């Protein structure tokens, strides 16, 4: 009997995988090689190892650019192997560690390179990846927020558009995300980790935090609006496929995503997780957003309907752009060319970047 979890993964995830670092041939080959969702993580881990071996060989031969490419691709394979594999914590954690290690191999090899940063937060550490455009003295900076199952490593594929326009990027794992998912639960009041991140960036002196933007994807699209409502240091923000009241989508999102939310909110049951989901609510908060906001949605989003984007746009208290992409799926990965360059142009203009 076909595994419905595997069938759903293959049917809905191909655009995201390809846009965020997985060669289409790899997606087709790996998904065709397995019959059960239980084999998903191991199959992608094997493919990640193959790319990592290519990176090691390239580095040994002195081909740094090729090595960087292979390591980033390996990290993407590991990440997408474990990103929703929460029913097997041991396998998830092992593959997570491989994703981080492979990506760190790439850090000094990329142009511009990545600097790994640690941010003190609530007795713990939040880890972020900082990239600064080459040749820029104190560039504007954009903080990037993952969603329920994305991480800072995946956000590199979005951040490249902004780097090319003179905007530095700081993609970080917040509570319940990536490197922080094991020690810190999902945080509905996301202005708390954002404040710690901005404090850290202000202390550096090599980026211009008077020109600071924020960006968030999927559940991060909620986080970024919440952050902008309470954090005046954010000068412009982009919300991509974010919910207004996450609990209203609870019964619509796939069971595998509900389980991921339960695990990453450190909830003992689905009922307890639903109570946490109910706290992810922008009601009464939207009017506090005063900075310019760019809101994107797909009109065929089966997870977060485009009406949520329209409600966000109608409710904020500052300038807003609402961009509902025709035939777009969740996060509009199937039509990424329709919004990624445009939002990068918009943010560069708002932050008065050199490429704006």
What features would you describe in this structure?
- The protein is α/β, with parallel strands linked by helices.
- It is 45% helix and 15% strand.
- It has an 8-stranded mixed sheet with strand order 1-2-4-3-5-6-7-8, with helices on both faces.
- Strand 5 (208-217), helix 8 and strand 6 (236-240) form a beta-alpha-beta unit.
- The protein is globular, with a radius of gyration of 19 Å.
List keywords for this structure.
356 residues, alpha/beta, de novo design (two linked rop proteins), Rossmann fold, 2 domains, eight-stranded mixed sheet, 8 strands, 45% helix, 15% strand
Short description:
By secondary structure, this protein is of the alpha/beta class. It has helices spanning 4-19, 24-32, 40-60, 64-82, 89-106, 152-163, 191-204, 219-230, 255-264, 270-278, 306-315, 340-350, and strands at residues 115-121, 124-131, 140-145, 168-172, 208-217, 236-240, 293-298, 320-325.
């Amino acid at each position: 009997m076909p595994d419905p979890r595997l069938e759903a993964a293959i049917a809905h995830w191909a655009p995201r995988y390809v846009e965020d670092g997985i060669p289409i041939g790899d997606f087709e080959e790996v998904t065709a090689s397995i019959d059960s969702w239980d084999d998903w993580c191991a199959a992608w881990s094997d493919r990640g190892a193959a790319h990592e071996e290519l990176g090691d060989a390239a580095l040994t031969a002195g081909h740094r650019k090729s090595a960087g490419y292979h390591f980033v691709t390996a990290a993407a394979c590991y990440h997408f192997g474990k990103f929703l594999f929460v029913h097997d914590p041991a396998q998830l954690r092992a593959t997570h560690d491989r994703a981080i290690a492979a990506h760190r191999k790439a850090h000094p090899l990329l142009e511009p390179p990545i600097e790994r940063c640690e941010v003190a937060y609530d007795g713990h550490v939040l880890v972020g990846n900082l990239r600064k455009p080459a040749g820029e003295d104190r560039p504007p900076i954009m903080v990037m927020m993952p969603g329920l199952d994305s991480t800072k490593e995946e956000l590199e594929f979005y951040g490249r558009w902004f780097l090319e326009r003179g905007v530095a990027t700081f993609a970080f794992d917040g509570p319940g995300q990536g490197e922080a998912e094991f020690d810190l639960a999902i945080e509905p009041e996301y202005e708390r980790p954002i404040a710690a991140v901005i404090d850290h960036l202000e202390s550096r002196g090599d980026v211009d935090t008077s020109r600071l933007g924020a960006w968030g994807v999927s559940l991060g699209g909620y986080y970024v609006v919440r952050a902008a409502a309470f954090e005046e240091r954010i000068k412009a923000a982009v919300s991509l496929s974010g919910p207004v009241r996450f609990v209203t989508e609870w019964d619509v999102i796939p069971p595998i995503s509900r389980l991921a939310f339960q695990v990453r909110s450190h909830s003992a049951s689905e009922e307890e997780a639903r109570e946490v989901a109910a706290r992810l609510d922008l009601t009464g908060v939207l009017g506090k957003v005063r900075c310019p906001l760019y809101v994107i949605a797909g009109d065929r989003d089966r997870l977060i309907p485009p009406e949520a984007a329209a409600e966000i746009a109608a409710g904020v208290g500052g300038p807003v752009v609402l961009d509902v992409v025709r035939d777009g799926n969740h996060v509009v990965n199937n039509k990424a060319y329709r919004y990624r360059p445009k939002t990068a142009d918009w943010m560069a203009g708002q932050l008065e970047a050199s490429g704006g």
